[in-house]
Backbone:
């Protein structure tokens, strides 16, 4: 048996379900328990308040399902739960708060540790003295860790209410607002808020590299100007880039 | 390429989140701190600012858990790049990882999995260590892990494997004294013979940690308890054999107040002094 074959067989045994039978030796049992335990612990850490919301047993059942069906592919456990909100959406169809809250917790974690990006200040943009022609060729990079979701429930309010909730204490569902949830980091501060759908769509397009001029051609000038001012004030933009070619 | 590991013999602690504020508030009586490299790779924000502030006060050693040096599929290019970026940013005392594999077929395990000690595995590890050292432009320190199984395919012992790896790759060694104790109990070998089989001039750092009892007499390397008496005795024997060596205490679970770990570190200093005198 080659080393690669041995490692494949070893991994298959520690990642196997209990239905596949007990591990070959007590030592292999230690590795199997360690594998599962670390992944479950990573989910419990990332989705701490989601667990409070669903209750520990339903959460544990969902987490076990996830661990058995989603082997990790990254070298960091921080990213392990990236598909967990989608699983909760499926498993907790009658409880949409669970998936929204899980997405929000994951978003906060990712924004907190995202690689550094500069913050574009309004004064910097003003001092640059861009000409109209520059604005026609301008794109923006968004802040570190930016993400958005069309949440069906007010996960921001629910997340705040769960901060001090002891254990499984029931928390009244939050009213459902309109729009999308935004999460990002400005400097060292993780930020979040609701945005109306049109504003969130504009940010999404900017984040995909679409030119500011394209937005300006479609959105009312005063409205877009208002958004831009707010984005600059909130540290939602990292940098302005003026393309050299048209 | 930095050819040599600096002659550094201080006493340090792992930099863990519950103690970040204490390290920011005041200078702590440690000679260095050790970080888990992966916690700061491709990372920014407050965590990185904290590390940079601590780095102003203390030398930093980078300790990795995901390089997967025993992978016949080779090392992950993106991982190595992120590790190299962090090393250039921190200018650490050294960069270390484990004699193990952590992933296969694109799937991670997030565990330090054991290798059969064969010529094939040695060739794989030598090639991977050389590649990592080329990318990082510095020698690595390789740590002996705890293990809970052995392989009938093995043709040499773990210590002999480490000695051959150091000789062929130019790496140095990080001796985890607790891991020697744990594996010696689990597999029934003489821990002092393990120490004797290591090349003395290659050991540059030692780890101390606690463990717990597992099923059927196995010891588990849990890093959730104080260093036990048997490990302190083995540490004294290691200092007697290898001389003064950078030493740190690892605690990754059930992390106590910093003062408790500093007291344990003081005990390590006393133990090392006694071990040096006994040499």
Residues:
């Amino acid at each position: 048996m080659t080393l690669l074959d041995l490692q494949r067989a070893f991994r298959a045994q520690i990642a196997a379900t209990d239905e596949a039978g007990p591990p070959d030796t007590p030592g292999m049992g230690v590795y199997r328990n360690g594998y599962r335990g670390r992944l479950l612990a990573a989910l419990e850490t990332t989705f701490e308040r989601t667990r409070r919301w669903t209750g520990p047993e339903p959460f544990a059942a969902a987490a076990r399902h996830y661990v058995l069906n989603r082997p990790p592919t990254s070298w960091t456990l921080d990213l392990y739960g990236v598909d967990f909100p989608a699983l909760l959406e499926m498993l907790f169809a009658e409880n949409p708060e669970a998936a929204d809250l899980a997405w929000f917790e994951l978003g906060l974690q990712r924004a907190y540790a995202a690689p550094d990006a500069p913050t574009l200040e309004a004064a910097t943009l003003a001092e640059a003295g861009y000409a109209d022609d520059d604005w026609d060729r301008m794109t923006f990079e968004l802040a570190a860790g930016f993400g958005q979701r069309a949440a069906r429930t007010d996960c921001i309010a629910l997340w705040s209410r769960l901060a001090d909730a002891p254990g499984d204490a029931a928390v009244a569902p939050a009213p459902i607002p309109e729009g999308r949830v935004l999460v990002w980091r400005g400097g060292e501060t993780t930020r979040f808020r609701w945005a109306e759908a049109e504003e969130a769509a504009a940010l999404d397009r900017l984040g995909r590299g679409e030119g500011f001029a394209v937005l300006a051609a479609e959105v009312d000038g005063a409205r877009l100007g208002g958004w831009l001012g707010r984005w600059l004030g909130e540290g939602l933009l990292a940098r302005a880039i003026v393309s050299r070619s048209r | 390429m930095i050819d040599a590991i600096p002659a550094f013999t201080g006493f340090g602690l792992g930099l863990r989140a519950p103690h970040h504020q204490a390290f920011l508030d005041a200078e702590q009586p440690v000679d260095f701190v050790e970080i888990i490299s992966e916690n700061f790779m491709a990372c920014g924000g407050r965590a990185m600012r904290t590390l940079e502030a601590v780095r102003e006060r203390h030398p930093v050693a980078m300790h990795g858990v995901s390089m997967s040096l025993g992978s016949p599929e080779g090392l992950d290019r993106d991982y190595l790049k992120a590790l190299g970026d962090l090393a250039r940013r921190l200018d650490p005392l050294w960069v270390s990882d484990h004699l193990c594999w952590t992933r296969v077929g694109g799937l991670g395990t997030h565990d330090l999995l054991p290798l059969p000690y064969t010529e094939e595995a040695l060739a794989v590890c030598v090639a991977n260590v050389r590649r990592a050292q080329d990318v990082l432009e510095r020698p690595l320190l390789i740590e002996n892990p705890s293990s809970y199984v052995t392989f009938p395919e093995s043709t040499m012992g773990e210590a002999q494997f480490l000695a051959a790896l150091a000789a062929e790759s130019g790496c140095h060694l990080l001796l985890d004294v607790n891991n020697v104790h744990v594996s010696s109990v689990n597999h029934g070998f003489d821990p002092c013979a393990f120490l004797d089989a290591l090349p003395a001039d290659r050991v540059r750092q030692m780890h101390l940690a606690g463990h717990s009892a597992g099923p059927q007499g196995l010891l588990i390397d849990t890093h959730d308890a104080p260093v036990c008496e048997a490990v302190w005795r083995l540490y004294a024997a290691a200092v007697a054999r290898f001389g003064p060596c950078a030493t740190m205490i690892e605690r990754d679970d059930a992390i106590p107040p910093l003062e408790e770990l500093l007291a344990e570190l003081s005990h390590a200093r006393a133990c090392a002094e006694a071990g040096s005198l006994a040499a």
Summary: The first helix of chain B runs from residue 20 to 25. Chain B touches chain A through 46 residues (CB under 8 Å). The CA atoms of residues 229 and 235 of chain B lie 10 Å apart. Chain B has a mean pLDDT of 95.
